[in-house]
Amino acid sequence: MAEAKALSGRTAIVTGASSGIGRAIAFRLTEAGAHIFITGRTKSSLDEVAHEADKLGGKATTHAFDIRDVKALQDFIARAAKETGRLDIMVNNAGLEYPSSIIEGDPERWREMLEVNVLSLLVGSQAAIRAMRACRAHGHIVNISSVAGRTEASGVYGSTKWAVNSIATSLRKELEGDSIRVVNIMPGATATNFARNFPPEFVQGIVSSLGLKADFKQGEQMPPEIIDQVAKAGKLFLASADDVARAVVYAVRQPIELNIFEMVVRPQRQLQLPA
Questions:
Q1: Contact 256, 179 (CB under 8 A)
Q2: CATH of the structural domain 11-189+239-263, one choice from 3.40.50.720, 3.60.70.12, 2.60.40.10, 3.40.50.11810
Q3: For position 78, what pLDDT does the model report?
Q4: Fewer CB within 10 Å of terminal CB in the chain, N or C?
Q5: Is the Cβ–Cβ distance between 107 and 31 less than 8 Å?
Q6: What tens digit of pLDDT does each residue of 105-130 get?
Q7: How does pLDDT run across 19-31, given as a tens digit for each residue?
């Protein structure tokens, strides 16, 4: 039991925690004993995560807001530190992609990707580091990046993840003299609702290739039970959100003298879509 509750007494923040990877990370941190503060845009979804965390014997505090609101994010981080007296783990998970060519892309969607994927990560990291320093925590800043951040010609989304990887490297150097470590995790293809903004035929192609059927409308989220079916059916071709969550918990449980800085989490095989 002591091993299972290795993060007991610690405070963790997870952004984008209402679904997918963020949701899975919230559950794993809860199981490890952390008091989680979770945020996302949808209050009802956050409440469901908090309810599940409660059933796991943990404690979750929720607040729904747009992660692009700089002051709201700063206030949320300050609130977590004030209510618990500390901050130990900051997981910058919130992210989104609008796939398109640069020639045909919508600048307002580029702006949203830059603000969510890059600016909110910078703001969240800065505020979290200040809170961790104030309580002298052995802290971890965890960034959920992407293998797209290592891929050439990966579009605007990939460019935001190249930025995340660069920011993580810069922060790691800045924090070498602190008791705060930086963890940069790069998932590959993962079974989540991340592709909700992709063309429906693309998502249907993945689902059909796994022998499953599901109605999908662009912009809408698939129910968790459908995502679970996709993850189980495609486990050789798609990582699960929990795979990424377990990597996070492994990294933040290491002694502060050790920095697990980069981890790539990807499935065994590359998914081949039908032509």
A1: yes
A2: 3.40.50.720
A3: 98
A4: C
A5: no
A6: 999 999 999 999 999 999 999 999 99
A7: 899 999 999 999 9
Does the CA dihedral 116-112-51-207 come out positive or negative? negative
In this structure, what is the dihedral angle of CA atoms 262, 69, 96, 90, given to the nearest 10 degrees?
30
Report how far residue 269's alpha carbon sits from residue 253's, in angstroms, rounded to the nearest whole number: 29
User: What is the domain partition of the chain in residue ranges?
Assistant: 11-189+239-263, 195-237
> CB of 117 within 8 A of CB of 123?
no
The pLDDT assigned to 129 comes to 98
Within 132-225, strands assigned E span 139-144, 180-187, 190-191
C-alpha distances out from residue 114 to 111, 117, 136, 161, 196, Å: 5, 5, 31, 10, 18
Q: Of these residues, 37, 157, 162, 237, which one is catalytic?
A: 157
Spacing of C-alpha 263 from chain mean position: 14
Which residues lie across from 233 on neighbouring strands?
A: none
Low-confidence ranges of the chain (pLDDT < 50): 1-2, 273-275
Question: Minimal CA–CA distance to 227: which of 243, 247, 245, 207?
Answer: 207
The C-alpha atoms of residue 126 and residue 147 are separated, in whole angstroms, by 24
- CA–CA–CA angle 227, 186, 202 (5° rounding): 40
The structure tokens listed for 36 are 């989680």
| 165-198 pLDDT, tens digit each | 999 999 999 999 999 999 999 998 776 665 555 5
**Catalytic site residue 250?**
no
Cα 168 from Cα 182, distance rounded (Å)? 7
Q: Would you give the DSSP letter of residue 103?
A: T
For the CA atoms of 92, 96, 102, 107, the dihedral, rounded to the nearest 10 degrees, stands at -90
pTM here?
0.85
